[in-house]
Structure formats: structure tokens, C-alpha cells
Amino acid sequence: MNIFFMIKEGILGFTRARVAVTISIISMALSLSLIGGFIISIQNLSNLYQQFYKRTQIEIFINNSLNKKQIQQLKNKILNFNAVDSASYISPEQALQEFETDFGEDLVKVLEENPLPPTLRVILKSEYSDINEIEKIVENLKSIKGVDDVVFQKDIVKIINKYFMLGLLISVSIGIIIFIITTLLIFNTIRLTIYARKTIIEIMRLVGATNYFIKGPFVMEGVIQGIIGSLFACLLLFIMGNIIKNFLFTELIIPVYFYFILIATGTFLSFLGSYFSVSKFLKQ
Question: How remote is the C-alpha of 171 from its chain's centroid?
């Protein structure tokens, strides 16, 4: 039995059990879109964390005696640090304005002068998020001439890292559960499709057809169902992704290669589901 015969019989199988096949494809499409949507959500949340929350901000208080040229030299020196992604100068006037915006207090009226020093606001690269690494960087920055003090929100960094790891662990656990449920659903749906044609299988066995001859078309039909179901899942994710991107989260990213992975996953699971379902039925 050649591949063309299996493909032909697999396609003809769609007309022999239309209702069962339709239910199977819809179930696969919904199942795959569910797990696909979950993975995309986790990936985008992780990217958001890497882009914004994992970039530690450090405040470097500069000695008031430094002139503009010396401040620029200090800034250039700090930018040469491997861990530093960017550095911006905040004048005492800017710092005062930010303080008043954040806290609604006029320090000049209370203290009759601006107590805030010139500052360099440094953003570390995302790979430098470990507390111990940050503390070493802070100590190195403190040793630079012209730097009065260096501070960062240590407690906030700890909380963010802690809950990110906790969230990642929970997400991976949920993802595994969803994948298992999806796999079982696809397997059972294909099994029901094959069971709906048990009479045909029994007749083929009675006339002396080999297991390979019986199994081939059903496996091919399962593969075709998997491809169609995966394509519908990709379409659903594409539509939902565009709706979310246009109205809720403009930074949403769904890589093109993800659709190919989803199609390959759906096809592979359908192949396994149909192969083992027919094999189990033939052993009865």
C-alpha cells in the first residue's frame, strides 16, 4: 500500500463520518488554540518583565563641587561599565520637580533651599538582576571619585525577582497540565472518530486485510485532521492576537515561527493519537 492510497483513503474518511470528523477538528482547533494562547501570554509577559521590570535602576548622587565637564566625564566613565545600559543626568532642579510631582510637597518652601543633589540615573542591563551582582556594582560605583552615594531599591528588586520566579514556576506547572489535557482530549476525540467506524474495521479484518492495510488510512486521516485543526487554531490565534493588539496590549508579539510549531505539534499529536487508537482497537 503506497502513500497516495493512504492519502486518498484518509480524505475519503472525512465523507464517511462527517459529524465525528467535524467534532474532532473543532476539538483539536480549540485545544491547540488554548495551549497556544497560554504559551503566547507567558512569553509576552516574560518579555515585558525582561524589558521593564528586570532592568534595575540605580541613583548615583554626585558631589556638588563637580562642574559640567567633570559630570560628563563621570557619566562617560560609568557608561564604560559592562553592566550599565544607560545613564542620564538629573539636575537638582529636575529632581526637585520630580519630588514635587510624586509627593506633592514643596521642599524649597519648607527648607528655604533645594536639598537635592545632582544625580546620575543608571539603568543596568537585564542580565544583571541578581542582588549580589547589583551590590558589587554599587560598591564599585561608590569608589569612583566625585560620587557621594549610590542607592537602589533593594527590597523592590528582591520582591520582583521572587515573584517572577514563583510566577514562572506556577506558569510552567499550569502549562504542563494544559498540555496533558490537550493531548488527552485530542487522543480521545480521534479514538471516538475511529470507534464510530468500528464496523468497517471489523469487516476489513474478516476479509483478511492486514493491520498495516487497516491502520494506514486511519493514521493518515488523523494526520490530515491534525493539520486542518492546527490551521484553524492558528487562524483563531491570529484573529484574537490582532484584537488584543489593537484594543488591549499593543506590544503583543506572536512570532511567525510559532504558527509552524503549533501546526507541527497538532499534526504530531494527531499522528500519535490515531496510530495508538487504531493499534489498540486492532488488539481487541
Answer: 10
Nearest CA among 96, 78, 97 for reference residue 88: 78
* pLDDT of amino acid 56: 78
pLDDT at 228 over 70: yes
pTM over 0.70: no
DSSP letters spanning 155-220:
HHHHHHHHHHHHHHHHHHHHHHHHHHHHHHHHHHHHHHHHHTTHHHHHHHHHTT--HHHHHHHHHH
**Secondary structure, 3-state, 43-54:** HHHHHHHHHHHC
What structural domains does the chain harbor? 3-51+161-283 (no CATH), 56-125 (3.30.70.3040)
Which pLDDT score, from 0 to 100, does residue 5 have?
Answer: 61
Q: What are phi and psi of 60, to 5 degrees?
A: -110, 115
Q: What is the per-residue pLDDT across 81-112, written as a single tens digit (0 to 9) for each?
A: 888 888 888 887 777 776 666 666 665 555 55
Q: C-alpha grid cell for residue 142? A: 561608590
CB atoms within 10 A of CB 62: 22
Query: Exposed/middle/buried for 251, CB within 10 Å: 0-12, 13-18, 19+?
Result: exposed
